[in-house]
Amino acid sequence: MDIREKVQTAAQLLSQADNIIAFTGSGISSESGIPTFRGKDGLWKQFKAQDLATPAAFSTNPKLVWEWYDWRRNIIADKQPNPGHKILAEWNDLFSSLYVITQNIDGLHQKAGSENIIELHGNIWKLRCTKEGTVTEDHSCPLKEIPPICKKCGALMRPHVVWFGESLDTKLLSEAVKMCSKADLMLAIGTSSLVYPAASIPMTAAESGVKVIEINPESTPLTPRADTSIRGKAGDVLPEISDILNNIIRQTKGREK
Ligand code: BV8
Asked: How many CA within 13 A on the CB side of residue 4?
């Protein structure tokens, strides 16, 4: 099947689906100008994950880790949602339910207007007190002090994100799994499907009979499990699917009259 036929198939499958999951990774934000993790100019390329995004790195050198996050916050601060994010937000009310389960910490799904969002790996605009665990939102760019200190108890603040070697929030993970058990279709958009346990979500969905549509310029370990895998950019493919889906809906309504 060529890309046109796959886009057509995706629109058809969406027109017959009620409960949708959009599972997204850093690829959906790359057209907004935010580097991915594993692309040619990926974030990890310049830095080693184990040097920066781990509890050990933070306890060894919190200032260095915060300088990296402050640098990333400054990159993300002026970035806007792209057509990929916007189409998902437009689909908020098109289905019985649409959940966005994202590995991204950039907040662009919220900025685009998506409603039911599960941020599996946290959010770069949130800080957590290392002593009390309280979470605060802070959009200051650059950060007023590095490393930031808890205003209440004076302890070190950390980014409210999930580092390598850290377990995901069990409540969030079980909510994501519960939503997937109710879904009849999942869009896996812009993820290399390499980082676990998040990557197990689309895999499990495919194994349990959920229709999985992958949107990615490259193939991934999920590709062989997907019902259809569209080799394209999210910002191009999602608007194309949306146009065809809107035509299908118009024709169906026309026939019902
Ligand atoms: C855990 C937040 C239990 C932080 C992130 C050894 C030691 C310790 C752990 C492990 C180990 N070996 C394996 C593990 C498990 C590890 C893991 O999976 N590692 C991988 C690398 C092998 N996982 C963990 O550590 C997790 N916790 O397992 O806890 C435990 C406890 C103790 C000890 C052991 C285990 C926690 C993982 C969470 C890490 N935090 N982010 C931060 O951002 O600073 S992960 C980070 O990678 C981001 O969240 C990112 O989203 C995520 C996944 O990457 P992707 O989103 O998929 O992005 P990527 O760049 O990889 O791919 C982009 C894709 O988009 C590409 O396919 C590209 O083709 C495509 N694309 C590009 N442009 C477009 C596009 N697609 C569409 N449109 C476009 N325009």
From this structure: 0
**pTM tops 0.85:** yes
Please give the structure tokens belonging to residue 135: 């979470």
The one-letter code for the residue type at 186 is: M
| Domains of the chain as residue ranges with CATH | 1-34+80-121+169-257 (3.40.50.1220), 37-78+122-161 (3.30.1600.10)
DSSP 92: G
Q: Is the CB of 149 under 6 A from ligand 1?
A: no
Q: Which one has a higher pLDDT value, 1 or 90?
A: 90
Mutate to test the pocket of ligand 1, among 162, 195, 222 (most ligand atoms within 8 A of CB): 195
pLDDT tens, position by position, 122-152: 999 999 999 999 999 999 999 999 999 999 9
Q: Once rounded to an integer, what is the mean pLDDT over residues 226-245?
A: 98
Report how far residue 114's alpha carbon sits from residue 240's, in angstroms, rounded to the nearest whole number. Answer: 19
